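Hi there, hope your week has been kind to you so far. Please have a think about how the structure follows from the sequence. I've dropped the whole record in just underneath, so have a look:

_____
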Amino acid sequence: MEKLHAEQLTEQGLLDLESRYCSYGDTVHYSERPVIFDECEGSWLYDMQGTPYLDVQMWYSAVNFGYRNRDIEEAHNHQMKRLPQVASQYLHKEKILLATAIARETEKRFGLKGRVHFNVGGAQAIEDSIKLVRNFKKGKSLMFAFMGGYHGRTLAATELTSSFRYRKKYGHFGSRATFIPFPYCYRCFYGKERKTCEYECVRQFEKLFESEYYGVIDTKENEVEYAAFFIEPVQATGGYIIPPPEYFARLAEVLSKHGILLVDDEIQMGFYRTGKLWALEHFGVKPDVVAFAKSLTNGLNPLSGIWAREELINPKMFPPGSTHSTFSSNPLGTAAGLATMELLNKYDFAKMADEKGKYLVSLLKDLQKEHPVIGNVDGLGLAVRIEMTKSDGITPDKKLTDAIFQEGMKGDIAINGKKYGLVLDVGGYYKNVFTLAPALTITYEEMDLFIRLFESLLNRCGE
């Protein structure tokens, strides 16, 4: 292999190589000038010049427990020295113990017996969920999902992801989901006010089952054509939207009445992002399937999985070979995942996420009073949203949002004589929402610093 010259290992040299040899298809390239990061620790990323960037999105919530978390990293490194590789059709203790831990913790929360099946990424976990549902529902392929929902970009997962732009180049793999409005109370689809709406969104969904001519049910046989509803308890890419408290309980009543399964996508919100192991716990609803990934290994390994009720996933219903991935349940990933589950028992992350989330939201609401372009602030645990608007407090302002994001990536925000960068993530229906997913280990001092950095960007971008 041709040896790279020293000048190619500088930041500019690496960027030149990247522009020539790297596919842009697997990156986002939001930044006008991409930053090459060189080190990480806790809530911080460092570029090649050593500039610290406070990260408040933590790899789309993949690193809930801080970069280079010692407990998880040590378990991963220990596994590297002992059994780093073994084919996934064979057993090793870390897989068994991790599946046991997740199944037992889920049973504690929902009172349901189930099993755990592993794969290598969030979209793959969704694909396995689809297989599980179709198999249990005897091949029914139609699903409900939410407007604004995101479940991945593999061919089948894009059928459940509401954005057409993820599908338009590739056509349809199976059957595109029927998309139902999410209870986005700040911008209600039905134009209602939260205090007086009486859950109009649920009523409209329930109405679909009143007549066969709405295309959902055979009223003569009382049979629906749909197998499952794929949900996010807190909508992630859609803008960290927190639903009203009774929404999912009311929705679940409709689903149960018509035998429609509830598939809970916890890929971003799982592992105490919202202050619970599973975000759905906040809403008093029991799922049939839970899909998880990201923070299962704190970002150290692309391991994902599904938990499903025994009825759906027992060996007779879902026998060996039903689905397979070469690297699913790999030893490094399962060792890191097991360390994560042990970490959850070591610290009170429920209290940590709740108290820190309330503190961060209170700081942002104080900031909102001074800056009318902050239209909405909300949060559940440490899943926090900042919706940017015009000064009227409602008209989306994507331009300002983009400007703040770009300025944060320059790494030149001066605070007390030191320069910082700020790593933000942009989501929302109008790409005007900062979705904050800081490490659950973030300190109160770091949250205070975030407010100062964010306000500096607000002032710099002229609102």
In short: The radius of gyration is 23 Å. The chain has a mean pLDDT of 96.
